[in-house]
Amino acid sequence: MSTVLYNTLDLALLFTLYQCLLFAVFLVLLKKGKKQSNVLLALFLCAYAAIPLDTLINFGEAFRRFAIDYSPNIFYTFGSAYWLEAVLLLFYVRSLIYKNFTFKRSDLLYLLPLMFYLIYETDNWYLLDTQTKLALLNGYELSAEPAYKRFINLFRECFRTFCGVLCLLELQQYQRQIKNEYADIEAFDLTWLKILVLGFLVIRIQAVLVTLAVISSVELSIQIDYALLGQIANFMVMFLISFLIFFNMSLSNLFSGIEPQKALAEQTQEKQPINPEHIDRLRTYMREHKPYLNRLLTLDNLAAQLNMPSRQLSQLINRHFKQNFFEFINGYRIDESKTLLEHEAHRKTTMLEIMAQAGFNSKATFNTFFKKIVGLTPSQYRQQQLNS
After folding, report:
1. What dotted CATH number matches 7-261?
2. Tell me: the pLDDT tens digits for 154-177?
3. What pLDDT was estimated at residue 2?
4. Which of 4, 167, 314, 388: disulfide with 61, CB 3.0–4.6 Å?
5. CATH says 269-387 is which class?
6. Average pLDDT over residues 173-182
């Protein structure tokens, strides 16, 4: 942005700042749930609060004048938040989806860009004398900045986007693993977190486009209204933070974490030969004991009943039956529901009762799976069987 912000934009930035700080305090002091996740989200919000403050100081006319009079050292101080907020959001997502999430030494790699930035700003700004700083600030023009600064900004926005992509990949891994461990996944609602991660990813991609627009306008003389793009992003952030606050207060505790080691093992495991006896044992047990009628059945529950390691059972289902645990168990439940629907005695039994007797805990999963496997809705199937 090279133009002065309008009052409405100043208010949007101030409101975003207020929301972030207020909710951060709430998370640390009052919010129940996973303490570690709450603290990481609070740190993310504090880091993100610094971004609108940095924008106001650098591009808000009133704020800029005040900052120059107060201390030129304020400039660029809050810019370090750009390098930190995306990393904190990634850690927050990981703390939600992994049980007993702990930091590793390799996680320090995500903080290297921040460290390099602080060294760079110390050498290029903080070590300058006050008079030089004031001269640079009073005579500031975007086009007069060295080209390398614009490319540093471009790298910064690409790094933030990269962290956003990693968040999505972590969520996809979580979804796959949940389906390998649970037969009922309705309780694990990822929608709000997906929207949050995608929303911030869109904003970061937009920031990349804004930076490219600045480079195009200044370096290539191809004029693009980068100021408008940046202003739109400010309003998007304000609404996205509001969305985060609303849904986090009610839904964030629905997560059931997975073991990081187990998730990694599923990706890197060597394919060992499948023992035919294990296949027969599983089929016989499913047919004779019908464990799928338990609506709370999990991979660990079934593995304990079979006296088999859960990882071995997961590999057996994935590789031999070409299904995840979710599909495997609900396939048996569909067969059970078909049997119930075919009997004259169940002509007047409601679909909710059929669903429950077959082991389903979710009407949506029952209807979706039935239509996918049978090609008809449960009602259509019952009518077809009774007519014939």
Report:
1. 1.20.1070
2. 999 999 999 999 999 999 888 888
3. 46
4. 4
5. mainly alpha
6. 86
